[in-house]
Design brief:
Layout lengths: L3 E4 L9 H16 L3 E4 L11 H14 L22 H13 L3 E4 L3 H13 L8 H4 L5 H10 L4 E4 L6 E5 L3 E5 L7 E4 L7 H11 L4 E5 L5 H11 L6 E5 L2 E2 L15 H6 L4 H10 L13 H7 L10 E2 L2 H14 L2 H14 L5 H6 L1 H11 L9 H9 L9 H7 L4 H14 L5 H15 L3 H13 L7 H8 L1 H12 L3
Helix pairs in contact: 1-11, 7-8, 10-12, 13-15, 17-20, 18-19, 18-20, 18-22
The structure holds one RNA strand.
Length: 486
RNA sequence: GCCCCAUCGUCUAGCGGCCUAGGACAUUGGCCUUUCACGCCAAAGGCACGGGUUCAAAUCCCGUUGGGGGCGCCA
């Protein structure tokens, strides 16, 4: 039987990095086994589910490159792929359970359920519902009342009082003792299924073979296994991936900074960097490789190598990895991806950007060496574009300028540039070398002075390349205003 | 009460002898460079604790402690 896995998010917000990792593991597992990856939207919570969230989810997944074989916008034989469109299936299945005496209707109100629970707690008994406890509410009056109010009775599943166990592909054997939980609701009074019920029906009817999901669902598995058994169907394999925690060891949340895929995208992270980082957060390559393309992850993916302990999200490592990817990526792509960041900062207009592609490309290329995300590119580009007041009073600069031969060399360079319209990296270098030969400055003070005068900074990329990028006109201006004072 | 987890600050390798515990990020030092960064080299840093089992334990078992999850007509 071929492998079928699914990623089943609820459309109630942005795609969280934890969800992204779960999706990734499902994807890798599917590809590794030539299986099918399905995307299912779990929107049975009508209060919180939104179409916008669903769109954002799809966009984030697409951006990450985790394409699915079946899903809401892709044809498939197991659809529909939105739970809200599958209500007829849940109804059918529920009738079956009721007819077989494995589930029952109840006309209780939520408040009454609370009361039962409180009463049990007071008596020191576990807060478990049962048919005996619920049956007294099924009076004829109550049924009429529900009908008048347009309410449907909730459906409870009769939880067998026996132990259940699974052999989790990541956690190993997990056993839930007898009577760990009581009967639970599978159909709500609004006619929609509850989570634990819908997943089982969907996974069952979609013939999902492996359920790879977050650790937080581990205890739900008990209910789900009981349901599979009630339907007399084979239980799928389970693999529970541990949670992603914040730096303080608590569940990763907004307090910890960026947590959604969209935020990382907006901050200038490359999708392949995020994917690579997420893959390593819990899984490891058999030979310890860290930077690797998706196909290599697929080739080597194995649930055996997924760690069962929770992982803390380490932004520093992600940044490093993103920097590596930015440096190794195709230059034209980086230029293209940097564009919005550059425009947003107001460094260039759309026209300037497009009309000076060659210049921009060259500039982005030398600047990408030192960034860890795309948003830092415009910051680094500033020295080539923005003008400034030279801080001639700067103590450090003064010292450098006063060193032997420095000012003379700069004057000579000014003259040479003035008389040489040719503006190539090689000629710039030639002019500098010649000036140095004539005036014989001390090297370091000279270079530092020149850099400071031209870029207003003592640090930055290769000076000659920088000079070339600043452009002849601007270089001349910047030299002139200094030389004029000597 | 129930379930899961526990190796450097962080992500991890390790699945009874190859461990004097390996790699990566971060940190520190050095090299490279006119400078910063990149890159390269090196250093520091860890098996939570206590009992067993075994000739031998980071690895297996039990307990303690610590962390996380769950106990919804949320997913």
């Amino acid at each position: 039987m071929s492998v079928r896995v699914r990623f089943a998010p609820s459309p109630t917000g942005f795609l969280h990095v934890g969800g992204a990792r779960t999706a990734l593991y499902n994807y890798l597992f599917a590809k590794k086994h030539d299986g099918v990856f399905v995307l299912r939207i779990e929107d049975t919570d009508i209060e919180r589910s939104t179409k916008e969230s669903e769109n954002q989810l799809i966009e984030a997944l697409t951006w990450l490159g985790l394409d699915w074989d079946e899903g809401p916008n892709v044809k498939g034989e197991y659809g529909p792929y939105r739970q809200s469109e599958r209500t007829y299936i849940y109804k059918q299945m529920t009738e079956k359970l009721i007819n077989e005496g494995k589930a029952y209707y109840s006309y209780v109100y939520p408040e009454e359920l609370e009361e039962i629970k409180e009463k049990l707690a007071k008596e020191g008994k576990p807060p478990h519902y049962s048919y005996e406890l619920l049956e007294p509410y099924n009076t004829e009056e109550r049924k009429k009342e529900f009908e008048e109010k347009g309410l449907k009775p909730v459906v409870f599943f009769k939880m067998p009082r026996k132990p259940f166990s699974i052999n989790d592909l990541i956690k190993g054997p997990v056993t839930f003792g007898e009577g760990a939980i009581g009967d639970f609701i599978i159909m709500r009074s609004n006619g929609l299924p509850t989570y634990n019920y819908a997943v089982v029906i969907d996974d069952m009817t979609m013939e999902i073979t492996h359920v790879i999901r977050g650790d937080d669902h581990l205890s739900n598995t008990l209910r789900q296994v009981a349901l599979y058994e009630a339907f007399g169907v084979k239980v799928p394999e389970f693999a529970h991936v541990s949670m992603i925690l914040g730096p303080d060891g608590k569940k990763l949340s907004k307090r910890h900074g960026a947590t959604s895929v969209e935020e990382f995208r907006n901050k200038g992270y490359l999708p392949e960097a995020l994917v690579n980082y997420l893959a390593l957060l819990g899984w490891s390559h058999p030979e310890g490789k860290e930077i690797m393309p998706l196909n290599e992850m697929i080739e080597n993916f194995d649930l055996n190598r997924v760690n069962s302990s929770p992982a803390i999200f380490d932004n520093e490592k992600l940044k490093w990895m993103n920097g590596v990817y930015i440096r190794n990526a195709n230059l034209d792509r980086i230029v293209k991806l940097s564009k919005p960041f550059i425009l947003e900062k107001g460094l260039l207009t759309e026209e300037q950007f497009e009309n000076n592609k060659k210049w921009v490309t060259e500039a982005v290329d030398i600047v990408r060496e030192s960034v860890e995300d795309l948003s830092q590119i415009p910051d680094k580009l500033e020295i080539f574009l923005n003008d400034f007041e030279v801080e001639l009073e700067n103590e450090e600069l003064k010292e450098f300028l006063d060193a032997e031969g420095v000012k003379n060399t700069i004057k000579l360079i000014h003259e040479k540039v003035l008389n040489d319209p040719d503006w190539k990296v090689e000629t710039i270098l030639k002019n500098i070398k010649e000036a140095m030969k004539e005036a014989k400055p001390k090297k370091k003070p000279f270079y530092m002075s020149l850099r400071k005068i031209l870029t207003n900074s003592f640090e930055g990329p290769d000076l000659v390349k920088t000079i070339h990028l600043i452009g002849r006109t601007r270089v001349l201006q910047r030299l002139e205003r200094v030389v004029a004072k000597w």
